[in-house]
């Protein structure tokens, strides 16, 4: 790997210089043994770096490195890990190479406006980004030929501070590029690669950065280059700007610029997978490339459709980008003729049949320009078909050609390492290598082998760790912002590890109804303040900087948390991100989710929790409709939406469940102080959700469902001779289960 900035790490002894390769490949982040290599250099430096090996290796005194390079035990471990890493990177014998041997050189280009990979790369706002990040990690593990494109947001997403009045203050902090696991992409002459976005006038230029996600390169676009006008430099400065024109320019850069960058890097034969509509212009650029080669527009469109997958998540019309025609004209004037079509034909590609005058709808365009489209859960598939049936006149219900692939989470990323060790210990002897077949439900049946008290004690350990981390964060917040006693309570200083703990953490979009549990404050107070069976709630999440509604919800919660009547049993944790998410989904007892159905396209944080034995208490929406089986958590809110008093009814269902089921089960201890009924439910949650809602199941589903036709669309000869052609032993088949359920309904 000659493209790493090795000259900046000359203080690392040659014997362990592979640490630089490791630090610049996020593979370390989902392989706990690799993480320990950094941690062992010096625990304090590891902590100071906020678990960021690039930053740590830059800052660490040479003496620690020297000591490690002379320590036989360290070197032994180092050699084993480096061997494993290099073998992984060789990419032989992967699932994909065995399933699709001798395939033509077709790769998949994945486009997304955000990626949630690690907190050292703050290029995400929420679930959409983590889905993309988990998709890449899993594609890497399975050996898929994939490249990915996104943005290098120079300011990242906002950092959040909540002031004593409960108001969210956004703090923008430029991303420290030198301390992030990213490197500049250079051209053949060794200069920074700069690419002009084709046919867009006035011109926009992009520089390119690279993130190594295991075997998969992720290219990040950066418009902060000297040859750009000042306005253009700002295009990639932050996520989802509210300014419509700037947003259009972002999407032009992501789609058209991103496609051009792949081209410049010599990546030509690719199918495209779009994560949501923001990068849809990539399909436009693929059409233009073909027209440039002399293919007529309709044939080019046909080719592009056949080789494009579009995943849409947004179940409300207002959530889709629509750009007015005059704005489109401003940027695409020279693009129309390059496609060989006129303005009218171009604008028709983005027309929403029910509001034709509104402008260019990115989702309508993406649906027209791709032959394969899907929602992200069974329920979301139904909602999406209903929403977009107008694009296929004469179709309705199941005949609308939109499919679904239910989301999943990357198990090695979200399963706590100690929890993994415990699973290893009991599953491993019977099913060695279980982690590499973790989408097989049969493997997870062995969770029952774990003795109740071991699972319970480990859970308590993770909970204690969560609470000590939260208190430590609160201590730091106090030293920076001071504030009064009420703020200390609201920040979580009084959290108690022996109290039943509920977690609620996600973006503060209004549809997620973070305030729902305060619908009847008196009843909630009684639940939290029960002297024998107390309950505490930890909230976390950011409101979008332009969303005052979301900020008011946050403020309401924070003010409750400040009130002594709630007894210090409500905490709001600032600056929710990947790291806080890890602690929460490992350490709380119950994961609460109560969006307004059918707004939750899937939701993934509950999957992360379930994997670690945290029990879901969730409304029946998104993934939980598929996940809930009556024994692995709690469900409510099965009614139709829109009725008056919905909040009241849903809140009351939560209170009932807490009072009658959750709290009694949690505090029902045997003589050994283990709540065996609760632990049974934890095991059921792990077993039933772990395999199904894994990114492995999800990515395999995308591949087996779409890859053959993508290959065919690209003109490749295709024969699938691998193991997947054999009958599967899988007990659970998302397709057949869906059919039976829908037919039964
Ligand atoms: C998983 C995750 C999300 C998505 O959570 P949802 O419950 O799907 O909204 C958002 N933010 C972070 C930091 C996450 O880890």
UniProtKB/TrEMBL annotation:
Residues 721-745 are annotated as: Disordered. The keyword Transferase applies. Residues 12-121 form the DUF3417 domain. Coiled coil: none annotated. The keyword Glycosyltransferase applies. Pfam families: DUF3417, Phosphorylase. Keywords: Allosteric enzyme, Carbohydrate metabolism, Glycosyltransferase, Pyridoxal phosphate, Transferase. Its EC number is 2.4.1.1. SUPFAM superfamilies: UDP-Glycosyltransferase/glycogen phosphorylase. Residues 736-745 have a biased composition (Basic and acidic residues). InterPro entries: Agluc_phsphrylas, Glyco_trans_35, Glycogen/Maltodextrin_Phosph, Glycogen_phosphorylase_DUF3417, Pyridoxal_P_attach_site. It catalyses: [(1->4)-alpha-D-glucosyl](n) + phosphate = [(1->4)-alpha-D-glucosyl](n-1) + alpha-D-glucose 1-phosphate. Its cofactor is pyridoxal 5'-phosphate. Belongs to the glycogen phosphorylase family. This is glycogen phosphorylase. It comes from Methanoculleus caldifontis.
């Amino acid at each position: 790997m000659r493209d790493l900035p090795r000259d900046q790490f000359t203080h690392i002894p040659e014997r362990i210089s592979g640490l630089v390769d490791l630090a610049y490949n996020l593979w370390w982040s989902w392989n706990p043994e690799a993480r320990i290599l950094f941690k062992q250099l010096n625990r304090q430096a590891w902590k100071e770096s906020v678990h960021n090996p690039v930053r740590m290796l830059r800052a660490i005194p040479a003496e620690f490195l020297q000591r490690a390079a002379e320590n036989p035990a360290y070197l032994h471990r180092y050699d084993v890990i480096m061997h494993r890493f290099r073998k992984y990177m060789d990419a032989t014998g992967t699932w994909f190479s065995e399933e699709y041997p001798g395939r033509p050189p077709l790769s998949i280009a994945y486009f997304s406006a955000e990626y949630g990979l690690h907190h050292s790369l703050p290029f995400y706002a929420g679930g959409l980004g983590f889905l993309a990040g988990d998709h890449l990690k899993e594609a890497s593990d399975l050996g898929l030929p994939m490249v990915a494109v996104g943005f290098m947001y120079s300011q990242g997403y906002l950092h959040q501070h909540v002031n004593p009045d409960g108001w969210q203050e956004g703090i923008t902090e430029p991303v420290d590029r030198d301390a992030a696991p990213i490197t500049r992409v250079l051209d053949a002459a060794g200069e920074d690669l700069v690419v002009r976005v084709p046919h867009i006038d006035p011109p926009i230029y992009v520089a390119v950065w690279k993130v190594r996600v295991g075997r998969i390169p992720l290219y990040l676009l950066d418009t902060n280059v000297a040859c750009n006008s000042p306005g253009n430099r700002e295009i990639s400065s932050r996520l989802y700007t509210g300014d419509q024109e700037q947003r259009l320019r972002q999407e032009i850069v992501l789609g058209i610029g991103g496609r051009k960058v792949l081209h410049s890097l010599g990546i030509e034969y690719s199918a495209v997978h779009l994560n949501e509509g923001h990068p849809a212009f990539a399909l436009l650029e693929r059409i233009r490339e073909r027209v440039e080669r002399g293919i007529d527009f309709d044939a080019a469109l046909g080719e592009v459709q056949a080789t494009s997958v579009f995943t849409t998540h947004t179940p409300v019309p207002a959530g889709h980008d629509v750009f007015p025609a005059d704005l489109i004209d401003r940027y695409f004037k020279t693009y129309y003729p390059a496609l060989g079509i006129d303005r009218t034909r171009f604008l028709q590609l983005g027309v929403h049949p029910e509001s034709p005058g509104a402008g260019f709808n990115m989702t309508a365009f993406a649906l027209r320009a791709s032959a394969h489209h899907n929602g992200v859960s069974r329920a979301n598939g139904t909602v999406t078909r209903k929403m977009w049936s107008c694009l296929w006149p004469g179709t309705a219900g199941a005949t609308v050609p939109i499919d679904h692939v239910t989301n999943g989470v990357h198990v090695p990323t979200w399963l706590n390492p100690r929890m993994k060790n415990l699973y290893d210990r009991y599953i491993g002897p019977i099913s060695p290598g279980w982690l590499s077949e973790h989408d097989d439900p049969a493997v997870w049946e062995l969770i029952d082998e774990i003795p109740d008290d071991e699972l319970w004690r480990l859970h308590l350990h993770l909970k204690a760790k969560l609470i000590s981390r939260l208190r430590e964060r609160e201590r730091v917040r106090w030293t920076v912002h001071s504030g009064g006693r009420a703020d200390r309570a609201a920040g979580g200083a009084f959290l108690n590890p022996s109290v039943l703990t509920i977690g609620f953490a996600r973006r503060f979009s209004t549809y997620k109804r973070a305030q729902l549990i305060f619908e009847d404050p008196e009843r909630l107070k009684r639940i939290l303040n029960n002297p024998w069976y107390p309950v505490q709630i930890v909230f976390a999440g950011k409101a979008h900087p332009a969303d005052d509604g979301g900020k008011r919800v946050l403020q309401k919660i924070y003010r409750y948390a400040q009130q002594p009547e709630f007894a210090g049993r409500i905490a709001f944790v600032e600056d929710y991100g990947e790291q806080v998410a890890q602690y929460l989904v490992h350490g709380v007892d119950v994961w609460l989710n109560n969006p307004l159905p059918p707004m939750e396209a899937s939701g993934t944080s509950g999957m992360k929790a379930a994997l670690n034995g945290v029990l879901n208490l969730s409304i029946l929406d998104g993934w939980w409709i598929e996940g809930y089986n009556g024994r692995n958590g709690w469900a409510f809110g099965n009614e139709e939406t829109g009725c008056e008093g919905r909040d009241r009814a849903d809140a009351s269902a939560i209170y009932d469940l807490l009072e009658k089921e959750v709290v009694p089960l949690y505090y029902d201890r045997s003589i050994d102080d283990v709540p065996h009924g609760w632990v049974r439910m934890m095991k059921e949650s792990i077993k039933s959700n772990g395999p199904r809602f894994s990114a492995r199941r999800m990515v395999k589903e995308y591949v087996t469902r779409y890859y053959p036709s993508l290959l065919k669309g690209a003109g490749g000869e295709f024969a699938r001779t691998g193991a997947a052609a054999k009958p599967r032993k899988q007990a659970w088949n998302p397709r057949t289960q869906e059919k039976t359920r829908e037919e039964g309904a």
